[in-house]
Automatic annotation (TrEMBL):
This protein's UniProt keywords: Cell outer membrane, Membrane, Signal
UniProt record similarity statement: Belongs to the LptD family.
LptD C-terminal domain mapped to chain residues: 305-712
Protein name: LPS-assembly protein LptD
PANTHER family noted in UniProt: LPS-ASSEMBLY PROTEIN (PTHR30189), LPS-ASSEMBLY PROTEIN LPTD (PTHR30189:SF1)
Annotated Pfam families: LptD
Keyword Membrane: yes
Subcellular location, record wording: Cell outer membrane
Function: Involved in the assembly of lipopolysaccharide (LPS) at the surface of the outer membrane.
Length: 774
């Protein structure tokens, strides 16, 4: 064959490939080295075509390329043993080990392919395709129509591996066999006609019609894996989610939960994300039947419509303003536990409030510009403590009783901070202001205004000593109304214990008081590090001296926002350890502590800390259970041991300075191996203060997960109340996971009870067939 004929063949093939609209060819590999022939000046029309031999018997005859035929067009790539192009019929035929890969790295294989000249339509024999997310599609034959739809006969679909690690064929975990399959690339769906779902080669379910999202799409409307369970509270229950892709910027999920005992809990979530904001709303409602087993005297919420509503979002207005919200409300205190409702997905928080004793709703407006920061907040609270807890507290004449009449709402809480650019005496200066207004339906209303000016400077000497000097001048003004009605902390039915409140009298139930609280302090630290026989050693002693006037926490100030404090080493060097503004750490005191660590080359790490506060005077800023306030505070510290991030022991403790008893201890041991992962946690809390919702407890929690085989694992958990030697919760699970499926079976035993909710035994089954559901 002449050189001119060879060039004609290449040009003709270039013209054919340049018209490809199927997206079936991919970029050439780095090892490919062959001449490039250009069919036009447009770079998109450039094609690379090579073969061991190219023949053409006569000028108008078909072009035949044989022997490792390779063709490249843009980001598309074709390989075959033999390729024939007939200009007269405008048909391209590829035979023998045909593979076609597109720009999305999806590869189709066939024994023989017959295509139209523009490659839009065609027929393939012994067809198979490797799609995204490891999905595989095979058929006896495939017909491509209009460049956007492929029809397959006697097809099989799976996302499981079809060969073992040695390359031998194996039966996939699951697959769908169908008489006909249509892959619609425009609508991004796979449609199965007369389909069987097989699990481990055994037919399980027949469906005359089945549709699933194409593996190439990230999101598409469709059903999600169901959660199936049974419990003593709800009976048999099943949750079947449906995902709805509304647009590119918003979607919704409907997840109704059927319960044999209470009917259907209708639930849904809506999300929207835009250039200037993000919103997510979630809610549920159920018409609960009448409970004839619980005496009416012990029932806080009457049967009927029960519901929950969660939400979170923000909207930006320009570069400096943002409005945001985060709310959670429920119909009654027992609702969350009864139906296992929690914040999901984007609404989930590090501390899931659906498992605590209080729900909080917040709306905020924030402004930031330069060194100035302004936030305006409002808060609504909903208590979840039950009637049983309330009666016990009322019998003692104290404690939070979660009466909606005395639960405050904050409207507004304004906080402003300005950081000055210029330094004063070498230190940074910050001005702050805070306004808080609390209102109750029946209880004390209060307003507070706080302003402060702060100065802070760090000095580091050549010898490595670090000195921090700070000073703060703060002024507070408090105003109270309805002092005769009490608060949620001090309330006993119709006889509020408000006599001790400031300004209380039979004729005058309001009061205004003020406070000026200056503070100066000096902190010294001296971090030291060295290497010793290959080990890295570190030690840092730390001393903080602080002086403030005494007597700044008299009874004429009601502590609304600083009632709870967790005293540990991390907060030892806060010069004011009060969590809010109503309490103020006054007097002259010294905080002292030391941290140290040692790490060896083989991965062994030991680190610890210990410290204490020494005071010249006692203070009323903290309650007796906090470990603070006396001349010598409790001793706080930590001790952690770890080896190669596999085995570790973490300890955090607080020891009573007078008796030596452990007031608070939190310990956790863990092991993270390839086969076994286990943890053991111990919590001891000796402090007890009902007003601050602190209850003496001692608990032990253990959990473990063991990998039995490559795919199978078992796990379990156990939580024990050591005071009563009673189990709080137990769970046991069996799981299976491979490259294409997940299966989990969990048994849970919850022994906690309230006035209206009994202990629960539950079984939950979850399963997912990857790529089959969205």
């Amino acid at each position: 064959m002449s050189t001119s004929n060879r060039l004609i063949a290449r040009l003709l093939m270039t013209t054919v490939l340049a018209g490809a609209a199927t997206g079936l060819l991919a970029a050439p590999p780095a090892w490919a080295a062959a001449p490039t022939v250009t069919a036009s000046e447009n770079e998109s029309d450039q094609v690379l075509f090579e073969a061991d031999s190219v023949e053409r018997e006569f000028d108008d005859g078909p072009i035949i390329a044989e022997g490792d035929v390779r063709a490249y067009f843009g980001a598309r790539y074709l390989r075959a043993d033999r390729l024939i192009y007939d200009p007269e019929t405008d048909i391209v035929i590829a035979e023998g080990n045909v593979s076609i890969t597109d720009a999305n790295m999806e590869t189709a294989f066939a024994g023989r392919v017959e295509l139209s000249g523009d490659l839009r339509d065609g027929i393939a024999e012994n067809f198979s395709a490797l799609l995204e997310d490891n999905a595989r599609l095979a058929a006896d034959s495939a017909v491509r129509e209009q460049g956007a739809r492929t029809r397959l006969n006697r097809a099989v679909y799976t996302s499981c591996n079809v060969c073992n690690k040695d390359g031998e064929p194996k039966t996939p975990t699951w697959r769908i066999k169908a008489l006909r399959v249509t892959r619609d690339e425009e609508r991004k769906v796979l449609r199965f006609h007369h389909a069987f779902l097989e699990i481990a080669g055994v037919p399980i379910i027949y469906a005359p019609y089945l549709q699933t999202p194409d593996p190439s799409v990230e999101r598409q409307s469709g059903f999600l894996p169901p959660d199936i369970g049974a419990s003593s509270r709800l009976g048999f229950n099943i949750e079947l989610p449906y995902y709805l892709a509304i647009s590119n910027s918003q979607d919704a999920t409907f997840f109704p939960k059927y319960t044999a005992k209470d009917g259907v809990l209708w639930q849904a979530e809506w999300r929207r994300r835009g250039a200037n904001g993000y919103h997510v709303l979630s809610g549920g409602v159920i018409d609960a039947p009448n409970d004839t087993t619980t005496p009416a005297a012990f029932t806080e919420s009457t049967p009927g419509v029960r519901w929950h509503l969660f939400g979170r979002g923000h909207r930006d207005f320009g570069e400096n303003w943002r409005a945001s919200y985060d709310f959670e409300r429920i119909s009654d205190k027992e609702y969350l536990r009864q139906y296992d409702v929690e914040r999901r997905g984007d609404l989930r928080q590090e501390l899931d409030r659906s498992r605590t004793n209080q729900l909080r709703s917040n709306a905020r407006v924030a402004w930031n510009e330069g060194g100035s920061h302004l936030t305006i907040d409002t808060y609504l609270f909903q208590g979840l403590r039950t009637q049983q807890n309330r009666l016990a507290m009322m019998e003692q004449g104290l404690g939070r009783i979660d009466d909606a009449r005395t639960t405050p709402y904050v409207l507004p809480l304004i906080d402003f901070r300005h950081d000055f650019n210029s330094k004063v005496a070498g230190g940074a200066v910050t001005a702050r202001a805070n306004i808080a207004s609390l209102y109750r339906t029946q209880g004390i209303d209060s307003q507070r205004f706080t302003t402060s000016l702060e100065w802070d400077r760090d000095i580091i000497t050549r010898g490595g000593h670090r000195f921090n000097l700070f000073a703060k001048a703060r002024a507070d003004v408090f105003s109270y109304q309805d002092l005769d009605q009490g608060t949620e902390v001090c309330f006993s039915g119709d006889a509020p214990c408000a006599i001790g409140f400031p300004g209380f009298s039979e004729t005058d139930t309001s009061d205004i008081t003020s406070r000026f609280a200056p503070t100066i302090g000096l902190e010294w630290t001296y971090p030291l590090a060295r290497e010793f026989h290959g080990a890295q050693l570190y030690i840092e002693p730390r001393v903080q001296l602080i002086a403030s006037p005494t007597g700044l926490n008299d009874d004429d100030i009601i502590n609304e926002d600083s009632q709870s404090i967790e005293f540990d080493y991390a907060g030892l060097f806060d010069f004011n350890k009060a969590t809010g503004y109503d309490a103020f750490e006054d007097g002259q005191r010294m905080n002292i502590g030391v941290t140290a660590s040692a790490e060896t080359l083989n991965g062994f790490l030991v680190e610890g800390s210990i410290g204490q506060q020494i005071r010249l005077q006692e203070t009323k800023a903290f309650n007796d259970s906090s470990g603070l306030g006396e001349k010598s505070s409790d001793i706080v510290g930590s001790l952690n041991i770890e080896y190669k991030n596999k085995v570790g022991l973490e300890n955090r403790f607080r020891i009573d300075n007078n008796s030596g008893d452990v007031q608070r201890a939190e310990s956790r041991a863990y092991y993270r191996g390839k086969i076994i992962r286990a943890g053991l946690s111990y919590v001891r809390l000796n402090e007890e203060n009902i007003a601050n919702n602190l209850v003496k407890r001692e608990e032990l929690t253990a959990n473990a997960n063991i990998k039995l085989t490559r795919h199978w694992s078992v796990g379990g958990g156990w939580r024990l109340d050591l005071d009563s030697n009673q189990t709080i919760q137990q769970n046991f699970s069996v799981g299976y996971e491979d490259e294409c499926s997940m299966l989990g079976l969990t048994y849970r035993r919850d022994r906690t009870r309230t006035r209206n909710v009994e202990p629960d035994n539950a079984i939950l089954l979850t399963f997912t067939l990857k790529s089959l559901v969205n």
